[in-house]
Each structure stands twice: as structure tokens, then as C-alpha cells.
Write a structure and sequence with these properties.
With about 120 residues, this protein is mainly β. It contains no helices and 11 strands.
Length: about 120
């Protein structure tokens, strides 16, 4: 299984970006996918996640109301729409997936940088 992210970049505070994470390989047994982020000197934190079977979602308190996670089953892709970006959102964003049966594993993308400027 390979996860490939795209969509990061430089954006002004208050702006928007959409991250994409496309999965390939044996992904028929997907349990959840989501996004972590890690800023310099900080621990990696879970930003958002989506349950692949029932669409339940999770958002960190710091992004609720601004970020939206969604998926496209046909493209095996998960998205993170990020609106009203703040300086504190700047980080490397990592896509992850819990995939596999009977023993699911965690898979990670390579990370994509999000930079927020004034």
C-alpha cells in the first residue's frame, strides 16, 4: 500500500488549501484514513480522521469548523479541505491509513508542507 499526498504549499493567513491523499495497492480492507500534522519542535498530532465504513469523522478542537475531511471511493482518495488557515496550522501534514485484513496496519504518506504567511 502506498499513500501519496499532494496539495500543500504556501498560503496567506485566512486562505484555503485542499490536501489530497491517494492510496494504491491492496486497499480493499480500509478501516480509516486521516491526517496528522507536525510542526517544528512539536509532537505529531491527529488533525482529522474518517471511518471508511460509516463516514464518522473526527476533528481536533483546533480545526473544528475550519477543516473538512472527505473521501472519494472511486479514486481511493481522502481530502482535507482547510479554510481560514492560521499561523498555527503551519506544519508538515501526513496522511495515514489503517488498511488490511485480518490484521490492519498503519500506512503513512511522505508528508506535505503547509506554510502560512502574513
Amino acid at each position: 500500500v502506498t499513500l501519496v499526498e499532494s496539495g500543500g504549499g504556501l498560503v496567506q493567513a485566512g486562505g484555503s488549501l485542499r490536501l489530497s491523499c491517494a492510496a494504491s495497492g491492496r486497499t480493499s480492507s480500509t478501516y480509516s484514513k486521516g491526517w496528522f500534522r507536525q510542526a517544528p519542535g512539536k509532537e505529531r498530532e491527529l488533525v482529522s480522521a474518517i471511518n471508511w465504513s460509516n463516514d464518522n469523522t473526527y476533528y481536533a478542537e483546533s480545526v473544528k469548523g475550519r477543516f473538512t475531511i472527505s473521501r472519494d471511493n472511486a479514486r481511493n482518495t481522502v481530502y482535507l479541505q482547510m479554510n481560514n488557515l492560521k499561523f498555527t496550522d503551519a506544519a508538515v501534514y501526513y496522511c495515514y491509513g489503517v488498511i488490511g485484513s485480518p490484521t490492519p496496519r498503519h500506512y503513512w504518506g511522505q508528508g506535505t508542507q503547509v506554510t502560512v504567511s502574513s
